[in-house]
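Q: How would the structure tokens look for this protein?
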Amino acid sequence: IQKVINQNPKSVIYFPDGEYVISSPIATPADGDLSVSLKLSDNAIIKASEDWSDSNAMIRLGGMNERNDINVRGSNYYLEGGIIDGNGKAKGVSIDHGRETSVRDVTIVNTSVGLTVRLGANGGSSDADIENIRIYGNGALSSIGLQIQGWDNTFSNMQISNVQIGVKIETAANLLRDIHVTYVQSGKLESAYRSSIGFLDTGDRNWYDNCTSEGFCTGFEIRSSRSILSSCVAKWYPDQTSKQV
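A: Here is the predicted structure in token form.
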């Protein structure tokens, strides 16, 4: 797969239905002149192997040919469709470099961290557009659904569950719209309920619109005084007896 990406710049690599087992990360170029998009059919599954040991995500968008400077034009590469399966071992998808990257219509399952957006070009602004994503974690302690480390991103219509922290934001100027995170009290997560957080915001000036935390002990932990929450909801269940915030 990596050889096909390397030899076909400015292309869309298509994955037909089937299971593709990988033992190391797949990386696409961040340089807009070499950018490659990955398009998966509805029943195409990229799965981590049983011996997976890499600390990087399975799919690293902009993971090679780094171009993180303010003169870089939008990379405009994307990941679309299919299923990314971490097999309980791997991280799912990361946007490592570049800007204006899109991830859409993707299901990410059995991962320790579902999706990470790192610092991008133009002073850390990654300008990513993420929409129509379902993340179901591996249920491990410290598991995270969505991790945001870059600036100026837009996230819309996401369903996240089976993680200890639904969304973790470390930067500013991100828009989250129609994000629903659900806590699953089973396995290791059952004993970790008191430390579960739906939305953890350690950044600044982020905007939440119609976001819902369901079942997490702490619904929204906003450590900045300048983030905005509009039409957001925290829900708990009657059998959850621990202190809730």
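The chain has a mean pLDDT of 92.

The CA atoms of residues 71 and 220 lie 36 Å apart.

Upvote if useful.
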